[in-house]
Amino acid sequence: MGLTRKQMLGVMGAAAAAPLVSGAGGPRVIRRDVCVLGGGSAGTYAAVRLRELGRSVAVVEARDRLGGHTETYHDPATGGTIDIGVVVLEDEPVVRDHFGRFGVELVRLTGGGEGGTTAYVDFRTGRPVGYTPPAPVALPAYYEQISRYGPIDTVIDLPDPVPAELVAPFADFVAAHDLGSIVRLVFDYGQGIGDLLRLPAFYAINLFGQGVAGKILGGGFVTTAAHDNSLLYERATEHLGGDALLGSRAVRVERSRSGVRVLVAGPDGARVIEAGKLLVTIPPLVRNLGALDLDGTERSVLGRFEPGAYYTGVVRLSGLPAGVGLANAAAETPYHLPPLPGLYMVGPSAVPGLYNVKYGSPSPLPDAVVRREIRAGIERVAAAGTYPVRFEGFATYAGHTPFELHVRPRDLAGGFYRRLGALQGHNRTYWSGAAWHSHNSARIWIGLEKLLPSIAAG
Ligand SMILES: Cc1cc2nc3c(=O)[nH]c(=O)nc-3n(C[C@H](O)[C@H](O)[C@H](O)COP(=O)(O)OP(=O)(O)OC[C@H]3O[C@@H](n4cnc5c(N)ncnc54)[C@H](O)[C@@H]3O)c2cc1C
């Protein structure tokens, strides 16, 4: 259980004002090789692997659980589970190893989902849209085109100068290579990316990269047999024991030639972590990094990031035929993609009457607005006479902002990701997480494997 907001502010205020010294009467000191900020996909994986590599760690996680974007709803009435964050993972050795070390059983997905039907509706009007997504016949051609740039969904190492077609809108990339048949597939997989067609092609390729496209073409995906991806993080929490500081935040971070000192406010009061290195896995927006003593270089690079927004939840509905899900589409737009902000889909879950909803926006919105819009979109479907669906409330709701950090085309062309990559190791600090690899846990873990030797080095 974490601190209440009031308690946390009290500890943070007192701790931030105090000099960052340890010793008698001061906050308890924890000495570790690496201090990891953020215990989601990247932070948890890194902590577990660093321990395997013989390094001691402490993970500072703001929430009272590890897992970040991996979240599972437990239905109290049926005991059923619904993964509302991370659902599928690429079938990669790194994924099987990670779940395997915690004894969490995986099953392969066949691609047929729950075997239901998708009806395309325009949630702005509630009316059906006469649309059937084309077979993605251009996927092999897409894979070939993006492979010219290597695994930029794993480690973002772009050619210098950055090719103009990666900076230009994804719509131009699609048109130039005749890839129209895959646009809906990329849109559906790339939920949360924002305005897919207008964003620089790099961002579409980073999210729907060699890893994902290759798995659709042949490799496959996995999920947990229990349909509860959070099991991985529950077991990792047990494994890390006292090394996982939950409900805790870094209040001040000082980095010097001799090491890193992190003042942490948590449920047990203030602590100082003295570490050789820092690994930051929280979304690297400057406003999230207020505790860090960022220097001018770090500030000028990280200050270019802008966030997108992605929201998810479980709603109770009645009146939809069994197995029918609703996907958003528009009659008048290129490739029938729905304008955002808007619902992506309302999909049936394994629990009758409960539906997973996904909503996206190019920039963050208040949660109250998103919740209202999700409900209104569903109610318009009934009002239009498309389906007699009744909205009966949210079983759960989660905002996942900031999501899909991106920079403007000018910064991308100007070598932003070269400068970002150059921050690795600067000021004894390493960086990982979706903004450094891709919004894809398998790609994050593969990317981290490349980084771990430097972090673990003495
Ligand atoms: C709805 C949804 C569905 C997704 N589906 C999939 C999927 O099916 N497959 C897939 O591979 N990927 C999926 N993703 C992408 C997902 O983002 C990545 O797989 C991965 O979880 C990103 O890991 P991360 O470590 O960068 O971020 P996170 O997992 O979010 O971890 C960041 C952690 O930092 C913590 N934190 C933030 N600020 C602070 C602070 N100041 N101090 C301490 N801690 C802090 C957060 O609480 C969080 O635990 C999905 C994402 C969402 C939102």
Automatic annotation (TrEMBL):
It holds the Pfam family Amino_oxidase. It comes from the Bacteria. InterPro entries: Amino_oxidase (IPR002937), FAD/NAD-bd_sf (IPR036188). Gene3D superfamilies: 1.10.405.20, 3.30.70.1990, FAD/NAD(P)-binding domain (3.50.50.60). Residues 43-286 form the Amine oxidase domain. This is Amine oxidase domain-containing protein. It comes from Paractinoplanes deccanensis.
